[in-house]
Amino acid sequence: MDEQLTVSSSPHIRADEDTRAIMLDVLIALLFPMAVAVYFFGWRTLSLTAFTVLCCVLFEYAYRKLLKKPVSVGDMSAAVTGALLAFVLPPATPYWMAALGAFFAIVIVKQLYGGIGKNFLNPALAARAFLGGVASLSSFVEPLLDPRIPVLGAADTVAAATPLAEESLEALYSGVTLFSWQDMFLGQIPGSIGEVSAALLLLGGVYLLIRRVITPIIPFAFIGTVALLTFAFPRGGVPRLEFMLYHLLAGGLMLGAIFMATDYSTSPVTPRGQWLFGIGCGALTVFMRYFAAMPEGVCYSILLMNTVVWTLDKVGRPRRFGVRAFRRGEKGGKDHA
Amino acid sequence: MVHRFRGGIHPEDKKEATRHKQVESLPPPPRIILPMSMHIGAPCEPVVRPDQEVFVGQLIADSNAPVSAPIHSPVSGKVLAIDPFPHPNGGRVKSVVIENDGKDTPHESVLPKGSVESLTPDQLLRIVREAGLVGLGGAAFPTHVKVTSARGKCDTLILNAAECEPYITTDHRLMLEAPEEVIGGFRALIKLLEPRRAVIAVESNKRDALESLRRTLPGKTNIELVTLRTRYPQGAEKQLIKAVTGREVPPGKLPADVRCAVFNAVTAASLHRAVTTGMPLTRRTVTVAGSAVANAKNLSVPFGTPMIDVFNATGGFREKPVKVLTGGPMMGVAQFDLSAPLIKGCNALLAFAKDDVPPGGDEICIRCGRCVRACPMNLLPVYLYMNERKDRLDELENLRLNDCIECGSCSYVCPGRLHLVHSIRTGKQKLRDKKG
User: Fold this and answer.
1) What domains are defined for chain A?
2) Helix intervals (H) in B265-408
């Protein structure tokens, strides 16, 4: 009997939660904004999302198979990438373009760097930036459009202006808000599939917080910085509060702060690093929206911050245990907070 | 107020199987094996010869080294041999084998020493050493060394009854069944160290134990009972001091450097017994549990009893064990030879069936940061792992690899199933090798 005992290094127990369980939770959280997309833009959004998920899983499977690496699609991370990629695409994006994006996200951004945990750029956002560079991503539509964009085939619609489109921002900076904050909060505005409804994105975020998939630091620092800067420096005579709300609810801020900037592989692991990362994302977003009138401010901000994650972890390293802690020993009380 | 430290984890405590079970006494087996290394520090040398007759409580082995603790016989009988035998911490160690004559005749030296009140601190310290006391929470560091190095330097004395490892309920049962021994031993330690503050610290999942201690303490007392948050590794020395006093032991320093001393509750009770009965440390309570065990129990086991005999005494195995541990599941040592004897630091014997042994698999880090949040020493296990894998030894030092207390919290929470603690241990070895 003795020679059959397993000998291994401690600890000998593990928490139940594994990578797959975490990714499943992210997918569940994404169902909230998905439902809004279907309601406002029709079934095309669901079929496009399913398509990018399928493409991402297939590309990952094929790549791992071809290079004779262990097949990793079971961890569900490719599915998450697929869903997030669809969420940053306009509802009427052609399928071929979505497939191209999925290839870029999975093969170029994720797998060429070694797969899950090793990529340094957010795959969905990098693919979105790539697609924006090779083609025009302007197939946005009005919500509750009649007739709806067909599930298959090209959309025969006029491109709608999103709250961050050049003309919308120009209007805002000259004192006119083209969208009410209520519509923006609920998501009844033109925009990418997953970005329009701040309300449901926040709900998804609350789910992720409750399930402890993410911590509040990055979303809080990111959204907080945007709120602070836009409240402190409003432009164009719009009342500060209204101006701030517009920037919080427009475009991909909620999607970016809650689902993209919290991507494990491409964000810091140290709490202090996470604060700096979130603040950096927020500041860059405001900067791009103010001075470049770039609707993709959130996307580029996160990608830029992705490149300094290791530096932020170095800077944000926690205080060493036992260093500068024992000062008021006489009282035996708490020495520091 | 519930006291806390940063980080840590909250595993299922699994204590239900034994927490309500009275400690049973296991009679010594026909043959016991006493390894010369039952503690941290220099191994002892036998002071008996083969064929010599020995009695219960008789000194069997001792050492002149400053850090060591003498070993006594838990049985009366005859020394059969002095040979290398399998040791629970691996390898083979010189051991004294004694054949039990079953008479339990006590040695002439085993006489009551008086009371804590009547003895001087120096007399108490001599008893601590002569009784072979070591830290019975698992570390097995010689108690007299700890007391000596802490005398005159402490303002806070903490009795550690946190018992944060899953499954183990020995401290818990002791506080319920013999609170007067715990408090008696603690009073002896108070007399030795003269602290300004004396604290018995218990995790909040043992309210009945706290109640038992409270009932035993007189109405007016200088002993303080502190409820700790139930969180692993609350019983680790540095985390305990942090939770109780707010002080942090600096890297590479001892508790005395922040004017604290910590002793385990079972150690205190053993000291009490050594004072009042004169019986040195020859047995201890062990939690026998785990999914492969037929009847989980708390047993008082004589040292030197082969592990397999302890399991058999509880009714053997329900299922074939796939993994056997001495100690808890977080920091315990996996065993491969159950003929090895039980030694002083061993507070639990756990046997697990197949379903409870996590299978090996790919280790894939997703950089989720859970290990960073779980680390009670403020380390970055994910970066330690990466750098160890790539042999970047300078970076490992820079990331304070040697601060790691190997509590296992990082590996426990890792969703990518990385063997983080193992990697850190390997890293420590690589650093030692480099320094020669």
Assistant:
1) 19-315 (1.10.3430)
2) 265-276, 307-313, 370-374, 381-389, 393-398
